[in-house]
């Protein structure tokens, strides 16, 4: 992974969510927007929760390219693990976000908590995350 000048700045730190990785690999219009961040000089993070979600999706759909894509994600970004503090904050954040989105899942709260912990923005198009102050919305 490349080193980034001023990598402690939120503008250079990006957490990539499941939505963004899916669109990136599809090569959709939204994926092309994600590509501008993923393939440039940003310090990228992917929560381990995203790996779990992608693994489930690819296996459900019977797509054999998952292994190579998982390796690509690991090469392009730092995989962040769910520690006790982030897990606790995720539960708290889920309850806060439920006031806005009644159907938000714990995975979205975990991804948002990772971004908060890392002082990073979230690259997403997910309806539950795209309107957060620290999100980069690729859905439009």
Folded structure, characterized:
The protein is of the alpha/beta class and 140 residues long. 50% of the residues lie in helices and 14% in strands. It has six helices and five strands; from the N terminus they run βααβααβααββ. Strands 3-2-1-4-5 form a five-stranded parallel sheet, sandwiched between helices. 36% of the residues are buried.
In brief, what are we looking at here?
The protein is an alpha/beta fold and 140 residues long.
Mean pLDDT: 92
Number of domains: 1
How many DSSP helices? 6
- What is the terminal-to-terminal distance? 28 Å
Major sheet: size, sense and barrel closure? 5 strands, parallel
How many DSSP-defined strands?
5
Strand fraction: 5-15%
CATH-level-4 superfamily name: 5'-nuclease
CATH fold-level name:
Rossmann fold
SSE series: EHHEHHEHHEE
Poorly predicted residue ranges: 1-7
Helix content: 40-55%
Per CATH, the class reads Alpha Beta
Task: Give the radius of gyration.
Answer: 14 Å
How does the overall form come out from the CA principal axes? globular
Structural class: alpha/beta
- Placed side by side, the strands forming the largest sheet appear as 3-2-1-4-5
Named CATH architecture? 3-Layer(aba) Sandwich
């Amino acid at each position: 992974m490349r080193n980034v000048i001023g990598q402690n700045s939120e503008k250079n730190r990006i957490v990539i969510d499941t939505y963004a990785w899916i669109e990136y690999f599809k090569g959709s219009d939204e994926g092309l927007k994600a590509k501008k961040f993923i393939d440039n000089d940003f310090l990228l993070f992917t929560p381990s929760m995203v790996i779990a979600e992608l693994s489930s999706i690819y296996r459900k759909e019977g797509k054999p390219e998952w292994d190579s894509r998982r390796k690509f994600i690991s090469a392009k970004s730092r995989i962040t693990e769910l520690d006790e503090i982030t897990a606790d904050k995720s539960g708290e954040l889920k309850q806060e976000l439920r006031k806005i989105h009644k159907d938000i899942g714990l995975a979205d709260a975990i991804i948002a908590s990772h971004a908060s912990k890392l002082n990073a923005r979230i690259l997403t198009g997910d309806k539950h995350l795209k309107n957060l102050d620290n999100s980069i919305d690729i859905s439009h």
